[in-house]
């Protein structure tokens, strides 16, 4: 197909496709004349994954290039591929901590929380993961989010530790199983990686919204008249 | 107590306490001299709720004043109070949609999604809420987040509608029940309102982080070796 069709089916403007070609994110097409080239289905799958990594996941072009390189080296290992596309640090705000950065007037105690450890050097996140039996890499940024949240709540006077999160973690486990189920029917590694990015990142605001809606409904059920 | 102790126990600097007094968010203390006043326990509870609404929930001083006024009018109705403190629109970014605003390079199809309705004028959110049997106000901003997320996923080529969210909504319902359980042991309306804000808003990044950690663990379990 020509670049115009690649642009249309990949959902990315032609100028952006050309930019990705220049940056080496997309491999060149097969030249058909001095100014034209022919592109194939793998270009489309790759372009859609790039769109997800840059447009949805918020990665820089440089970080995306590295992720794509690593993905093609580990194509046959779904766990590695998912870790690569979901674990890479975004260039801009981390979605999971975005909510922490907007208040210009945050309470004193909530500032500069660091990962406190107990006498044995165990953070809240370590203890929670051990309790749940979850296998998670040492460097997962989400560990710090858990520990920092608990620090912040304690600094604000709420009596909370990792044990308070165990029932939430049990529900998160079931949510993650739903997430993974939805990747099971895709076998192409690039397609699966794209879907993992879209469903993980784009569902985040919806899952929080569902919690708010369910809270309102549950509050009406318990206290409404 | 003197203003210095109010500041310490409320977790807010003295200058900020004075600002809240001037703005009428806190009622004046009982004057003990030309320059000093005496404050009580209700000042502390109110100050902590103000701290939660402004510092954590992200409300403006004006919006906080209105919420506090409405809360004191409906103090005996927990459902009203929770709706007031959780439903008010923040002055800055809406946490639930914060993730949508950072990408300068979002995919074409994902821009300017509006709440599409079917022939009967029913949005995806309406259909989902009806299926779940949830009682939720017409104007809850979270409705739009659900509908917009589905629009965005469809625009990006993922075959998704409200039915796809039903299993997630069932888990959100159980999460909300946990949330409400944690308010049950507080009977003072101001304290309960403060705790609702802290647990709802501050747990958001932690719940997303738990999902990420659980995904990694579930991926290792299914595909790891």
Give the topology, please.
The structure is a homodimer of 225-residue chains.
Chain A: H1 3-10, H2 14-22, E1 30-31, E2 37-38, H3 41-56, H4 61-73, H5 78-87, H6 124-132, H7 141-155, H8 162-181, H9 189-223
Antiparallel strand pairs in A: 1-2
Helix pairs in contact in A: 1-3, 3-9, 5-9, 6-8
CATH architecture level-2 label of the domain at 1-76 and 185-225 in chain A:
Orthogonal Bundle
Low-confidence stretches of chain A: 92-113
Global geometry of chain A: elongated
The CATH class assignment of the domain at 1-76 and 185-225 in chain A is: Mainly Alpha
Regarding quaternary structure, how should these chains be classified?
homodimer
Number of extended strands of chain A: 2
Largest interface: A-B, 97 and 97 residues
What is the end-to-end distance of chain A?
63 Å
Helix content of chain A: 55-70%
User: Roughly how many Å is the radius of gyration of chain A?
Assistant: 21 Å
What fraction of the residues of chain A are assigned to beta strands by DSSP? under 5%
Average pLDDT reading of chain A: 85
Q: What sequence of helices (H) and strands (E) makes up the elements of chain A? A: HHEEHHHHHHH
Q: Order of strands across the biggest sheet of chain A?
A: 1-2
Q: What is the CATH T-level topology of the domain at 1-76 and 185-225 in chain A?
A: Multidrug-efflux Transporter Regulator, Chain: A, Domain 2
Q: Structural class of the helices, strands and pairings of chain A?
A: mainly alpha
Number of helices of chain A: 9
Tell me the major beta sheet of chain A: 2 strands, antiparallel
Pfam families (chains A, B): MerR_1
Protein name (chains A, B): Transcriptional regulator
Organism (chains A, B): Streptomyces agglomeratus
GO molecular function (chains A, B): DNA binding; DNA-binding transcription factor activity
């Amino acid at each position: 197909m020509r670049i115009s069709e690649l642009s249309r089916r990949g959902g990315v403007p032609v100028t952006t496709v050309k930019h990705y070609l220049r940056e080496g994110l997309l491999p060149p097409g097969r030249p058909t004349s001095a100014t034209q080239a022919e592109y194939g289905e793998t270009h489309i799958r790759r372009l859609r994954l790039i769109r997800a990594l840059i447009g949805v996941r918020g990665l820089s072009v440089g970080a995306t290039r590295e992720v794509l390189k690593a993905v093609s080296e580990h194509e046959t290992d779904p766990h590695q591929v998912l870790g690569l596309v979901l674990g890479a640090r975004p260039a801009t705000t981390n979605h999971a901590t975005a909510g922490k950065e907007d208040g210009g007037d945050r309470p004193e105690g909530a500032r500069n929380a660091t990962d406190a450890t107990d006498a044995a050097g165990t953070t809240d996140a370590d203890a929670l993961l051990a309790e749940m039996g979850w296998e998670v890499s040492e460097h997962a940024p989400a560990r710090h989010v858990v520990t920092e949240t608990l620090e912040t709540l304690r600094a604000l006077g709420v009596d909370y530790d990792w044990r308070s999160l165990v029932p939430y973690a049990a529900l998160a486990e079931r949510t993650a199983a739903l997430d993974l189920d939805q990747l099971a029917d895709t076998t192409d590694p690039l397609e699966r990686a794209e879907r993992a990015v879209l469903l993980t990142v784009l569902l985040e605001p919806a899952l929080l919204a569902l919690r708010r809606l369910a809270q309102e409904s549950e509050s009406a059920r318990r206290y409404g008249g």
